[in-house]
Amino acid sequence: MFTAMKTVFIKAGLCLVLAAAGCSDGGATEPAAQSHLATPVHLTNCGLPVSVTAPPQRAIALEQNATEIMLSLGLADRMVGTSYQTDPVLPDLRPAYEKVPVLAKLYPSREAVRAAAPDFVYSTYTSAYSPDAAGSRADLATLGVPAYLSEFACEKPADATQTVTFDGIFDEIRDIAGVFGVPERADKLIRDQQSRLDAARGAAPTTASSAGPSLLWYYSGTSTPYVAGHGGVPDAISSLLGARNTFTDASQKWPAGNWEEIAKRNPEVIVLADLTRGGDGDSAQSKIDFLRRNPVTSKLDAVVAGRFVTVPGSSMDPSIRSVQAAELVGANLHGTAR
């Protein structure tokens, strides 16, 4: 981390000379004049207007997925706060993350948000804008602070995008980049993400059956397992890889399942969310231990054969990490198809 400082100073000097060529630190910073020349942005986001007259300079991201999108767009220097870290920060983003103040272990209070004097607030989850967290987006708007919420988690379900797609995630990235006047960074990030998705699709095995291998996406819980239903990231990844989400017929994105029904469906592969919060059935290893000792689940074909794939829990939510889940599952499907 510290060995890179000299390179940054040298590059900053070069950028003064090469500013006309658009020199930047890997997309992390841009000449201030270019940012301030950006035109005003007006969005309708989850049914509410979000307008910025100039690129924000004091943004807060209220949880990790939003934070990592901003960091991936090289916006650490425009952030005055982050919160709710659920996983170790992606290694390539950690140096930038460490420059951003952490306002709270979970969500910051309304008072903490206002004390940071933000000019933009961003979150992936509706819960971030509850009265006991940052406060509603409408309340922030009365203070002159525009607030963005992922279209997959709108306050009113009717306003939300019902089915998660990677194109939808890319649209969110474009929105945030547009707000900050750096659309070319979104283009670069999306090209990289799409290239990785294409490689993941190619890594997955082809099958004689059009249905593909069946996947149980096991998120949390042991007495009551929560699994992936229809319309979420697991569905999008299953479709991408030519596989079948075992519970895609469920109407909810994360329904409460039961082991008897899971045993009837007998998935060929079990994808395990590795959660760091420490609850019952949260870590991937605790899930495996339970599946092997439980009389019902120990007889599942996937358990007997040890066909487990572990992915970070946050990658099952719409984020830049979702590509990582597609890569991990795609790479591990070799030999699982009938």
Describe it:
- With 338 residues, the protein is an alpha/beta fold.
- The protein folds into 2 domains: 34-160, Rossmann fold, CATH 3.40.50; 204-332, Nitrogenase molybdenum iron protein domain (Rossmann fold), CATH 3.40.50.
- The protein contains 13 helices and 12 strands.
- It has helices spanning 5-17, 32-36, 64-72, 94-97, 110-115, 137-142, 166-179, 183-203, 233-240, 259-265, 284-293, 301-305, 322-332; strands at residues 41-45, 48-52, 59-61, 79-83, 102-104, 120-123, 147-149, 214-220, 226-227, 244-245, 269-274, 308-312.
- The strands form 3 sheets. Strands 5-4-3-6-7 form a 5-stranded parallel beta sheet. Strands 8, 9, 10, 11 and 12 form a 5-stranded mixed beta sheet that branches.
- Strand 8 (214-220) and strand 9 form a beta hairpin.
- Helix 7 (166-179) runs antiparallel to helix 8 (183-203).
- The protein starts with a helix and ends in a 6-residue tail after the last helix.
- Keywords: Signal.
What secondary-structure arrangement, pairings included, does this model have?
Blueprint: H1 5-17, H2 32-36, E1 41-45, E2 48-52, E3 59-61, H3 64-72, E4 79-83, H4 94-97, E5 102-104, H5 110-115, E6 120-123, H6 137-142, E7 147-149, H7 166-179, H8 183-203, E8 214-220, E9 226-227, H9 233-240, E10 244-245, H10 259-265, E11 269-274, H11 284-293, H12 301-305, E12 308-312, H13 322-332
Helix pairs in contact: 7-8, 8-13, 9-13
Protein name: Iron complex transport system substrate-binding protein
InterPro entries: ABC_Transporter_SBP (IPR050902), ABC_transptr_periplasmic_BD (IPR002491)
Signal peptide: 1-19
